[in-house]
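Thread: "does anyone have the structure for this chain?"

Original post by V.I.:
We have the sequence but no experimental structure in hand. Need at least a predicted one for the grant figures.
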Amino acid sequence: MRVCDQGDGRGRPHVINEGLFRRVLVRERKRSDRSNQPVVLLLLDLDDGLGTGSSLIWEAAIETLAAATRETDVLGWFEWRAVIGVIVSEIRVSDLANTCDGLDTRVRQKLTDRLGAEAVDKLSIRLHVYPEPKITGEEVLGGVNPLLYPDLRARWEQRTIYDAIKLALDVIGSLTLLLVLSPLLLLIAALVRLTSQGPVLFMQVRIGQMMKPFTVLKFRTMYTGTDHRVHHEFVSRFIKASGQGHAPGKNAFFKLTNDSRVTPVGRVLRKTSLDELPQLWNVLRGDMSLVGPRPPLPYELEQYEPWHRRRVLEAKPGITGLWQVAGRSRTTFNEMVRLDLRYARTRSLWTDIKILLATPAVVISGKGAC
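Reply from O.Q.:
Generated one for you, C-alpha coordinates below.
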Protein backbone atom coordinates (compact mmCIF):
# COMPACT_ATOMS: atom_id res chain seq x y z
CA MET A 1 0.00 0.00 0.00
CA ARG A 2 1.53 3.31 -1.08
CA VAL A 3 1.90 6.17 1.38
CA CYS A 4 0.65 9.69 0.67
CA ASP A 5 3.11 12.56 0.38
CA GLN A 6 3.33 14.11 3.83
CA GLY A 7 5.09 17.17 2.42
CA ASP A 8 2.14 18.21 0.29
CA GLY A 9 -0.83 19.81 1.96
CA ARG A 10 -3.23 18.47 -0.65
CA GLY A 11 -2.45 14.83 0.19
CA ARG A 12 -1.50 13.72 -3.31
CA PRO A 13 -1.46 9.92 -3.60
CA HIS A 14 1.31 7.52 -4.52
CA VAL A 15 4.39 9.46 -3.35
CA ILE A 16 6.19 9.75 0.01
CA ASN A 17 8.24 12.70 1.16
CA GLU A 18 12.00 13.14 0.75
CA GLY A 19 13.07 12.26 4.30
CA LEU A 20 11.01 9.07 4.46
CA PHE A 21 12.06 8.01 0.96
CA ARG A 22 15.75 8.27 1.84
CA ARG A 23 15.24 6.31 5.05
CA VAL A 24 13.51 3.56 3.07
CA LEU A 25 16.45 3.52 0.63
CA VAL A 26 18.90 3.03 3.50
CA ARG A 27 16.73 0.24 4.94
CA GLU A 28 16.46 -1.56 1.59
CA ARG A 29 20.21 -1.24 1.03
CA LYS A 30 20.89 -2.91 4.36
CA ARG A 31 18.26 -5.54 3.64
CA SER A 32 20.05 -6.26 0.36
CA ASP A 33 23.28 -6.88 2.30
CA ARG A 34 21.56 -9.68 4.22
CA SER A 35 19.45 -11.17 1.43
CA ASN A 36 21.98 -10.85 -1.42
CA GLN A 37 19.14 -9.57 -3.61
CA PRO A 38 19.86 -6.39 -5.60
CA VAL A 39 17.95 -3.13 -5.19
CA VAL A 40 17.31 -0.74 -8.08
CA LEU A 41 16.89 3.00 -7.56
CA LEU A 42 15.22 4.78 -10.48
CA LEU A 43 15.51 8.57 -10.47
CA LEU A 44 13.47 10.82 -12.73
CA ASP A 45 15.05 14.27 -12.87
CA LEU A 46 12.56 17.02 -13.69
CA ASP A 47 15.05 19.87 -13.43
CA ASP A 48 15.70 20.19 -17.16
CA GLY A 49 13.91 23.33 -18.22
CA LEU A 50 10.45 21.84 -17.99
CA GLY A 51 9.33 24.03 -15.14
CA THR A 52 9.74 21.91 -12.04
CA GLY A 53 7.31 24.09 -10.15
CA SER A 54 4.53 23.07 -12.50
CA SER A 55 2.11 20.70 -10.80
CA LEU A 56 1.15 19.22 -14.17
CA ILE A 57 4.69 18.01 -14.83
CA TRP A 58 5.27 16.17 -11.61
CA GLU A 59 1.68 14.94 -11.38
CA ALA A 60 2.14 13.28 -14.77
CA ALA A 61 5.48 11.84 -13.69
CA ILE A 62 4.04 10.43 -10.46
CA GLU A 63 1.08 8.82 -12.20
CA THR A 64 3.37 7.39 -14.89
CA LEU A 65 5.80 5.87 -12.40
CA ALA A 66 2.94 4.45 -10.35
CA ALA A 67 1.51 2.77 -13.46
CA ALA A 68 4.91 1.41 -14.57
CA THR A 69 5.94 -0.13 -11.24
CA ARG A 70 4.69 -2.78 -8.83
CA GLU A 71 2.52 -2.05 -5.82
CA THR A 72 5.35 -3.27 -3.58
CA ASP A 73 7.81 -0.72 -5.03
CA VAL A 74 8.34 2.53 -3.12
CA LEU A 75 7.66 5.81 -4.90
CA GLY A 76 8.75 9.12 -3.42
CA TRP A 77 10.64 12.38 -3.68
CA PHE A 78 14.42 12.01 -3.77
CA GLU A 79 14.67 15.80 -4.02
CA TRP A 80 11.51 17.80 -3.40
CA ARG A 81 9.91 18.98 -6.68
CA ALA A 82 13.12 18.18 -8.59
CA VAL A 83 13.81 14.42 -8.57
CA ILE A 84 11.26 11.62 -8.12
CA GLY A 85 12.49 8.14 -7.30
CA VAL A 86 11.33 4.53 -7.24
CA ILE A 87 12.93 1.84 -5.08
CA VAL A 88 12.56 -1.61 -6.62
CA SER A 89 13.58 -4.40 -4.23
CA GLU A 90 13.42 -8.20 -3.99
CA ILE A 91 15.03 -8.82 -7.38
CA ARG A 92 16.77 -12.08 -8.19
CA VAL A 93 20.34 -11.59 -9.41
CA SER A 94 19.52 -13.57 -12.57
CA ASP A 95 16.62 -11.19 -13.32
CA LEU A 96 18.49 -7.94 -12.67
CA ALA A 97 19.34 -7.05 -16.27
CA ASN A 98 15.82 -7.81 -17.54
CA THR A 99 14.29 -5.88 -14.63
CA CYS A 100 16.37 -2.78 -15.35
CA ASP A 101 15.75 -2.88 -19.10
CA GLY A 102 12.02 -3.52 -18.67
CA LEU A 103 11.62 -0.76 -16.08
CA ASP A 104 13.45 1.79 -18.19
CA THR A 105 11.42 0.86 -21.30
CA ARG A 106 8.05 0.97 -19.53
CA VAL A 107 8.72 4.31 -17.89
CA ARG A 108 9.93 5.95 -21.11
CA GLN A 109 7.02 4.57 -23.10
CA LYS A 110 4.38 5.67 -20.62
CA LEU A 111 5.99 9.12 -20.25
CA THR A 112 6.03 9.48 -24.03
CA ASP A 113 2.36 8.55 -24.22
CA ARG A 114 1.53 11.07 -21.50
CA LEU A 115 3.87 14.02 -22.21
CA GLY A 116 5.11 13.47 -25.75
CA ALA A 117 8.52 12.47 -27.13
CA GLU A 118 9.90 16.04 -27.09
CA ALA A 119 9.23 16.48 -23.36
CA VAL A 120 10.64 13.04 -22.50
CA ASP A 121 13.89 13.85 -24.32
CA LYS A 122 14.42 16.69 -21.85
CA LEU A 123 13.95 14.43 -18.82
CA SER A 124 16.77 12.51 -17.17
CA ILE A 125 15.96 8.91 -16.25
CA ARG A 126 18.71 7.18 -14.30
CA LEU A 127 18.94 3.64 -12.89
CA HIS A 128 21.28 2.90 -9.98
CA VAL A 129 21.90 -0.66 -8.81
CA TYR A 130 22.94 -1.82 -5.36
CA PRO A 131 25.23 -3.68 -4.72
CA GLU A 132 27.47 -1.86 -7.11
CA PRO A 133 29.63 -4.01 -9.44
CA LYS A 134 32.59 -5.67 -7.74
CA ILE A 135 35.96 -4.07 -8.35
CA THR A 136 38.38 -6.23 -10.32
CA GLY A 137 42.09 -5.99 -10.99
CA GLU A 138 44.08 -2.82 -10.48
CA GLU A 139 41.62 -0.52 -12.23
CA VAL A 140 41.36 3.05 -11.02
CA LEU A 141 38.64 3.49 -8.44
CA GLY A 142 36.29 6.45 -8.50
CA GLY A 143 34.66 5.90 -5.13
CA VAL A 144 31.07 4.79 -4.57
CA ASN A 145 27.80 6.16 -5.86
CA PRO A 146 26.80 8.71 -3.19
CA LEU A 147 23.16 8.61 -4.30
CA LEU A 148 22.88 5.10 -2.83
CA TYR A 149 24.21 6.27 0.55
CA PRO A 150 22.09 9.25 1.65
CA ASP A 151 22.81 8.43 5.30
CA LEU A 152 26.58 8.67 4.85
CA ARG A 153 26.21 11.73 2.65
CA ALA A 154 24.18 13.51 5.31
CA ARG A 155 26.65 12.53 8.03
CA TRP A 156 29.55 13.83 5.93
CA GLU A 157 27.84 17.16 5.24
CA GLN A 158 26.88 17.69 8.89
CA ARG A 159 30.31 17.90 10.50
CA THR A 160 30.24 17.57 14.28
CA ILE A 161 32.42 18.92 17.06
CA TYR A 162 33.93 15.43 17.33
CA ASP A 163 34.94 15.56 13.65
CA ALA A 164 36.66 18.91 14.14
CA ILE A 165 38.51 17.73 17.27
CA LYS A 166 39.51 14.45 15.57
CA LEU A 167 40.91 16.35 12.58
CA ALA A 168 42.89 18.66 14.88
CA LEU A 169 44.16 15.65 16.85
CA ASP A 170 45.27 13.97 13.62
CA VAL A 171 47.16 17.01 12.35
CA ILE A 172 48.79 17.97 15.66
CA GLY A 173 49.44 14.36 16.69
CA SER A 174 51.00 13.24 13.40
CA LEU A 175 53.16 16.35 13.09
CA THR A 176 54.37 16.04 16.69
CA LEU A 177 55.14 12.33 16.31
CA LEU A 178 57.02 12.91 13.06
CA LEU A 179 59.21 15.51 14.78
CA VAL A 180 59.74 13.54 18.01
CA LEU A 181 60.38 10.24 16.23
CA SER A 182 62.56 11.72 13.48
CA PRO A 183 65.81 10.20 14.93
CA LEU A 184 64.16 6.75 15.03
CA LEU A 185 62.79 7.21 11.52
CA LEU A 186 66.25 8.10 10.22
CA LEU A 187 67.79 5.09 12.00
CA ILE A 188 65.23 2.69 10.53
CA ALA A 189 65.70 4.23 7.09
CA ALA A 190 69.46 3.68 7.32
CA LEU A 191 69.03 0.05 8.44
CA VAL A 192 66.62 -0.70 5.60
CA ARG A 193 68.93 0.93 3.04
CA LEU A 194 72.13 -0.72 4.28
CA THR A 195 70.82 -4.27 4.73
CA SER A 196 69.09 -4.80 1.39
CA GLN A 197 68.95 -3.24 -2.05
CA GLY A 198 66.00 -1.10 -2.96
CA PRO A 199 64.16 2.02 -1.80
CA VAL A 200 63.66 2.83 1.87
CA LEU A 201 59.95 3.39 1.53
CA PHE A 202 57.36 1.03 0.10
CA MET A 203 54.46 2.78 -1.62
CA GLN A 204 51.20 0.92 -2.19
CA VAL A 205 47.70 1.84 -3.35
CA ARG A 206 45.11 1.39 -0.60
CA ILE A 207 41.40 2.16 -0.41
CA GLY A 208 40.31 5.02 1.82
CA GLN A 209 36.99 6.39 3.04
CA MET A 210 34.15 6.21 0.50
CA MET A 211 36.43 3.81 -1.43
CA LYS A 212 38.72 6.53 -2.75
CA PRO A 213 42.25 5.26 -3.51
CA PHE A 214 45.39 6.78 -2.02
CA THR A 215 49.08 5.82 -1.77
CA VAL A 216 50.11 4.53 1.64
CA LEU A 217 53.72 4.78 2.86
CA LYS A 218 55.56 2.09 4.81
CA PHE A 219 59.16 1.17 5.44
CA ARG A 220 60.17 -1.52 2.96
CA THR A 221 60.26 -4.90 4.67
CA MET A 222 60.64 -7.19 1.63
CA TYR A 223 63.32 -7.82 -0.94
CA THR A 224 62.71 -5.97 -4.19
CA GLY A 225 61.22 -7.86 -7.12
CA THR A 226 59.19 -10.26 -4.97
CA ASP A 227 56.01 -11.93 -6.22
CA HIS A 228 52.93 -10.49 -4.48
CA ARG A 229 50.64 -13.26 -5.71
CA VAL A 230 51.39 -15.15 -2.49
CA HIS A 231 49.73 -12.43 -0.43
CA HIS A 232 46.90 -12.12 -2.96
CA GLU A 233 46.08 -15.82 -2.53
CA PHE A 234 46.43 -15.53 1.24
CA VAL A 235 43.93 -12.66 1.38
CA SER A 236 41.44 -14.55 -0.78
CA ARG A 237 41.63 -17.65 1.44
CA PHE A 238 41.40 -15.58 4.59
CA ILE A 239 38.21 -13.78 3.56
CA LYS A 240 36.50 -16.81 2.04
CA ALA A 241 37.30 -19.09 4.99
CA SER A 242 36.02 -16.45 7.42
CA GLY A 243 32.68 -16.53 5.62
CA GLN A 244 32.57 -20.28 6.23
CA GLY A 245 32.98 -19.79 9.97
CA HIS A 246 36.59 -20.95 10.36
CA ALA A 247 38.76 -19.46 13.09
CA PRO A 248 42.39 -18.43 12.51
CA GLY A 249 43.56 -20.36 15.53
CA LYS A 250 42.54 -23.57 13.81
CA ASN A 251 43.87 -22.69 10.36
CA ALA A 252 47.53 -21.88 9.95
CA PHE A 253 47.08 -20.15 6.60
CA PHE A 254 45.37 -17.15 8.17
CA LYS A 255 48.76 -15.69 8.97
CA LEU A 256 51.76 -15.44 6.67
CA THR A 257 54.60 -16.75 8.83
CA ASN A 258 58.22 -17.46 7.87
CA ASP A 259 57.72 -15.48 4.68
CA SER A 260 60.95 -15.80 2.66
CA ARG A 261 60.20 -12.51 0.91
CA VAL A 262 60.73 -10.54 4.14
CA THR A 263 64.21 -9.24 5.02
CA PRO A 264 65.76 -9.82 8.49
CA VAL A 265 65.27 -6.15 9.36
CA GLY A 266 61.79 -6.31 7.91
CA ARG A 267 60.83 -9.12 10.30
CA VAL A 268 61.72 -6.93 13.27
CA LEU A 269 59.88 -3.95 11.82
CA ARG A 270 56.75 -6.03 11.19
CA LYS A 271 56.87 -7.65 14.62
CA THR A 272 57.00 -4.24 16.29
CA SER A 273 54.80 -2.49 13.67
CA LEU A 274 57.55 0.10 13.19
CA ASP A 275 57.17 -0.32 9.44
CA GLU A 276 53.88 1.57 9.78
CA LEU A 277 55.45 4.80 11.10
CA PRO A 278 55.69 6.55 7.68
CA GLN A 279 51.89 6.46 7.60
CA LEU A 280 52.05 9.45 9.93
CA TRP A 281 52.67 11.40 6.74
CA ASN A 282 49.43 9.96 5.31
CA VAL A 283 47.64 11.20 8.43
CA LEU A 284 49.14 14.66 8.05
CA ARG A 285 48.02 14.72 4.40
CA GLY A 286 44.47 13.76 5.40
CA ASP A 287 44.40 10.35 3.67
CA MET A 288 44.26 8.56 7.02
CA SER A 289 43.51 9.18 10.67
CA LEU A 290 45.44 8.16 13.77
CA VAL A 291 42.51 5.88 14.69
CA GLY A 292 40.31 4.03 12.22
CA PRO A 293 39.89 0.80 10.22
CA ARG A 294 42.86 -0.73 8.41
CA PRO A 295 42.90 0.47 4.75
CA PRO A 296 42.37 -2.50 2.41
CA LEU A 297 44.18 -3.36 -0.80
CA PRO A 298 42.33 -3.16 -4.14
CA TYR A 299 42.52 -6.93 -4.64
CA GLU A 300 41.26 -7.44 -1.10
CA LEU A 301 38.23 -5.33 -1.98
CA GLU A 302 37.51 -7.73 -4.86
CA GLN A 303 36.64 -10.43 -2.30
CA TYR A 304 34.37 -8.24 -0.16
CA GLU A 305 30.71 -9.00 0.35
CA PRO A 306 28.50 -5.89 0.12
CA TRP A 307 28.30 -5.49 3.92
CA HIS A 308 32.10 -5.70 4.20
CA ARG A 309 32.38 -2.48 2.20
CA ARG A 310 30.82 -0.54 5.03
CA ARG A 311 34.17 -0.64 6.86
CA VAL A 312 35.65 1.67 4.19
CA LEU A 313 32.54 3.79 3.89
CA GLU A 314 31.71 4.77 7.45
CA ALA A 315 35.10 5.85 8.82
CA LYS A 316 38.43 7.18 7.58
CA PRO A 317 41.19 4.49 7.71
CA GLY A 318 43.68 4.71 10.54
CA ILE A 319 47.16 3.67 11.62
CA THR A 320 45.67 1.94 14.64
CA GLY A 321 42.13 0.94 15.50
CA LEU A 322 39.80 -1.25 17.51
CA TRP A 323 40.76 -4.34 15.51
CA GLN A 324 44.48 -3.74 16.05
CA VAL A 325 44.15 -3.48 19.83
CA ALA A 326 41.37 -6.04 20.30
CA GLY A 327 42.11 -8.82 17.88
CA ARG A 328 44.64 -8.15 15.17
CA SER A 329 45.48 -11.26 13.11
CA ARG A 330 44.02 -13.56 15.79
CA THR A 331 40.48 -12.82 14.58
CA THR A 332 38.59 -13.93 11.49
CA PHE A 333 38.00 -11.42 8.72
CA ASN A 334 34.28 -11.13 9.52
CA GLU A 335 35.12 -10.42 13.17
CA MET A 336 37.56 -7.75 12.04
CA VAL A 337 34.85 -6.09 9.94
CA ARG A 338 32.40 -6.20 12.85
CA LEU A 339 34.99 -4.53 15.11
CA ASP A 340 35.50 -1.79 12.52
CA LEU A 341 31.75 -1.25 12.18
CA ARG A 342 31.37 -1.16 15.95
CA TYR A 343 34.01 1.56 16.08
CA ALA A 344 32.21 3.53 13.34
CA ARG A 345 28.91 3.34 15.28
CA THR A 346 30.31 4.21 18.71
CA ARG A 347 33.30 6.39 17.88
CA SER A 348 34.01 9.27 20.20
CA LEU A 349 36.99 11.25 21.38
CA TRP A 350 37.26 9.07 24.48
CA THR A 351 37.20 5.89 22.35
CA ASP A 352 39.99 7.24 20.16
CA ILE A 353 42.09 8.15 23.20
CA LYS A 354 41.62 4.69 24.73
CA ILE A 355 42.68 3.02 21.47
CA LEU A 356 45.73 5.28 21.17
CA LEU A 357 46.76 4.55 24.77
CA ALA A 358 46.32 0.80 24.25
CA THR A 359 48.36 0.71 21.04
CA PRO A 360 51.91 0.92 22.52
CA ALA A 361 51.32 -2.14 24.71
CA VAL A 362 50.06 -4.12 21.70
CA VAL A 363 53.06 -3.01 19.63
CA ILE A 364 55.55 -3.95 22.35
CA SER A 365 53.96 -7.35 22.96
CA GLY A 366 53.73 -8.04 19.22
CA LYS A 367 50.51 -10.03 19.69
CA GLY A 368 49.02 -11.02 16.38
CA ALA A 369 51.65 -9.15 14.37
CA CYS A 370 52.61 -10.63 11.00
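V.I.: this helps a lot. The first helix runs from residue 18 to 35.
O.Q.: and The chain is about 45% helix and 10% strand.
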